Amino acid sequence: MFERYGFHGVSVNQIVNECGTSKGGFYHHFASKDELLFVIHDYFISYALTKAQEAIDSNQLPTEKMQKIITSFLKVFDLYKPHISVFYQESIYLKPQYVKAIKEKRQSYKQIIFAVIKEGIQTGEFRPELPVEITGMSILGMVNWSYKWYKKDGDKSIEEIADIYVDLILNSLLTDQAKQEWRFKDYFLKNN
Amino acid sequence: MFERYGFHGVSVNQIVNECGTSKGGFYHHFASKDELLFVIHDYFISYALTKAQEAIDSNQLPTEKMQKIITSFLKVFDLYKPHISVFYQESIYLKPQYVKAIKEKRQSYKQIIFAVIKEGIQTGEFRPELPVEITGMSILGMVNWSYKWYKKDGDKSIEEIADIYVDLILNSLLTDQAKQEWRFKDYFLKNN
DNA sequence: CAGGACAGACCAACCAGTCGGTTTAAGCCT
DNA sequence: AGGCTTAAACCGACTGGTTGGTCTGTCCTG
Question: Which one, of A118, A175, A109, lies nearest residue A143 by Cα?
Answer without folding.
Answer: A109
